[in-house]
Design brief:
By secondary structure, the protein is an alpha/beta fold. The chain folds into three domains: 8-123 and 236-310, 3-Layer(aba) Sandwich (Rossmann fold), CATH 3.40.50.300; 358-439 and 515-594, P-loop containing nucleotide triphosphate hydrolases (Rossmann fold, 3-Layer(aba) Sandwich), CATH 3.40.50.300; 444-514, no CATH class. Keywords: Amino-acid transport, ATP-binding, Nucleotide-binding, Transport.
Length: 601
């Protein structure tokens, strides 16, 4: 791949992608252009060839005899319900999981079974489903790490690193060069700095003034942007993106879409896993739909998204509308957020009978808290009340203070001002452990299950404050009754399960502590539309069947308000709006403060 230089033809492609609709000759021209581009891609050489690839976990076929080709300059998206094998496929190609059988060829050379560094050295770069950056490094340092495999002058004898007995030689040489750099290594450092500058420039408005900040201080969306830049800086032959816009709102998703369209116009080869179907349609040359570890459809985006088998797999079988939720909301919320095709599977809702502006009979109260990160004030005078047996949604754009509020409630951040009351008792100075013992549980962002532990070990970890006994094992049995899929996988390592299954486990683990309130951070992140509906139904059941209160941070504002009793909208660390969820749902000020425009704006 050339050094980000584009010729006239790629510039024209980019112009065709981003030009205003009124400047086009019509929809037919767009369709014709896409079809011609799709056909020309198929005539290009195959960068990736997958043949009869299979992988099982404890007898469960996660990937079952799949085959496909990815051509140079082509963008293929893999869609399908959670547990269909999408991320497992990405992990097999990138070397994080070894295949049981099948072939994976990159530029005609086999990479199946190679370790991660070897596959990366051959030109594969990736992002991860839940986002992985080095929190103790700055944005620039994180991005620069993506080019480490391409270094020459600063990594003499790097080919010896694969031999354990000789591994000390390249490490010693790299240390010496870092202490006393020569002309070539100094020039290489300058080259890397220029590349980092270019990558940051892709997200200049978002990352430009955060380059020297540690990434743990960034919003979730900015961490994802940093990860994309880190993957791309090495100019890989194959770029693997696992749900790059998970946790982003509509305007942020549109921004990332434009960046990916730019990469496509430059001729990058991309394999994408994504649940946001409108992004898939706008970006992909071809789409692979998976279910049960198998490929059930392949073709252009419109053909696949309208395939009846795909619609059924992704949204579930059609059924008559029924009432699932008990709080304020609107019809077709999921259809608007995850458009893949019309379906009657979307649950209907009715308005909350409560019309109070603020909740009463509080279980948890946050009173005028200020929270700082160094000199930066993340929360200013924030007050929130969570009633007994209610669902409260905490809304706001990225970096608005939602996760900081959650961390403060859990004791992970100490407020500089204000207090937190729980059951009327001041718990501001209590440790996280004491708060959990008192009945405050958490389902953290990106689920944070223990990947190397089994499902049952994760559940037992949720009851660590209670000790071990017959009552704990009885609760484990109840969790298996509530989440039958977990019982099927009780001895499986949690890290090998799908995102939806891990979310079920995170719910069940939180319930093992017998909480009065559960704080949930982005519970629907990275889930397919059908599983989003299932998760929302489970949240409502926590309230209606178990009497558990829920404080929920959620990027999808309409989804959150569709099941909530009350809502608060944060903006720049302050509460801008609050009131009954049914009132906020149709309040245009919420859209102004939180929701972005549609993805194609």
């Amino acid at each position: 791949m050339s050094d980000f230089n584009t010729d006239a033809s790629s510039d024209q492609i980019l112009q065709d992608i981003e030009v205003d609709k009124e400047d086009l000759h019509g929809v037919s021209d767009i369709v014709t252009f896409a079809a011609q581009h799709r056909q020309s891609i198929l005539d290009a050489p195959a960068v990736l060839q997958v043949r009869n690839l299979s992988k099982s976990f404890n007898g469960l076929k996660a990937v079952n005899d799949i085959s496909f080709d990815l051509h140079q300059g082509e963008v293929i998206s893999i869609i399908g319900p959670n547990g269909s094998g999408k991320s497992t496929t990405i992990n097999l190609i990138s070397g994080f999981i070894k295949p049981d059988s099948g072939l994976i060829d990159l530029d005609g050379a086999s990479i199946a079974g190679l370790n991660v560094p070897d596959i990366s050295e051959r030109g594969v770069a990736r992002t991860f489903q839940n986002g992985r950056v080095f929190g103790g490094l700055t944005v620039d340092e994180n991005i620069a790490l993506g080019f480490h495999k391409r270094l020459e002058a600063q990594r003499p004898f790097k080919q010896l690193q694969r031999y354990p007995v000789l591994r000390w030689l390249p490490l010693l040489a790299e240390t010496a060069i870092a202490l006393v750099p020569g002309p070539k290594s100094r020039q290489e450092k300058r080259d890397v700095a220029e590349r980092v500058e270019r990558e940051v420039g892709r997200f200049k408005e978002r990352l430009g003034n955060r380059r020297n900040d540690f990434t743990y201080t960034l919003s979730y969306a900015n961490r994802r942007r940093t990860e994309i830049a880190r993957a791309h800086i090495s100019e890989p032959k194959l770029l693997l993106l696992d749900e790059p816009t998970a946790g982003m709102n509509q305007s942020e998703t549109a921004e990332v879409l434009r960046q990916l369209q730019h990469l496509k116009a430059q001729g990058h080869t991309i394999l994408l896993v994504e649940h946001k179907i409108e992004l898939v349609n706008a970006l992909s040359d071809h789409v692979i739909a998976m279910d049960g570890g198998k490929i059930i459809a392949y073709g252009d985006p419109d053909t696949v998204r309208n395939n009846p088998q795909v619609v059924e797999a992704y949204l579930g079988k059609r059924r008559e509308p029924h009432r699932v939720y008990q709080a304020g909301g609107q019809k077709d919320v999921l259809a608007k957020q995850n458009a893949i095709g019309a379906s009657d599977a979307i649950a209907t809702v009715h308005e909350s009978s409560s019309k109070q502006d603020t909740p009463k009979d509080s279980l948890l109260s946050i009173e005028a808290i200020d929270v700082y990160y160094g000199q930066i004030r993340a929360l200013q005078g924030v007050s929130i009340e969570v009633p007994k047996g209610a669902i409260v949604s905490l809304l706001g754009g990225n970096a608005s203070g939602k996760s900081t509020t959650m961390k403060t409630i859990l004791g992970l951040k100490k407020p500089a001002k204000g207090k937190i009351l729980y059951h009327g008792r001041d718990i501001t100075s209590l440790s996280t452990r004491q708060r959990v013992k008192s009945g405050i549980a958490a389902v953290p962002e990106a689920r944070r299950i223990f990947p190397a532990m089994t499902v049952e070990e994760n559940l037992l970890a949720g009851a660590y404050t209670r000790g071990r006994g017959a009552d704990v094992m009885s609760d484990v049995a109840q969790m298996y009754d509530r989440f039958p899929r977990l019982k099927e996988r009780r001895h499986q390592q949690a890290g090998t399960m799908s995102g939806g299954e891990q979310q079920m486990l995170a719910f069940a683990r939180a319930l093992m502590s017998h909480p009065d309130i559960i704080c949930m951070d982005e519970p629907t992140m990275g889930l397919s539309p059908k599983l989003v509906e299932d998760v929302l139904e489970q949240i409502v059941q926590l309230r209606d069947q178990l009497g558990v209160s829920v404080l929920m941070v959620e990027q999808q504002a309409e989804l959150a308000l569709s099941i909530a009793d009350y809502g608060y909208v944060l903006q720049n660390g302050r509460i801008r709006l609050h009131g009954a969820a049914s009132d906020l749902l149709h309040n245009p000020a919420v859209q102004e403060a939180y929701l972005g425009g549609p993805i194609d704006e």
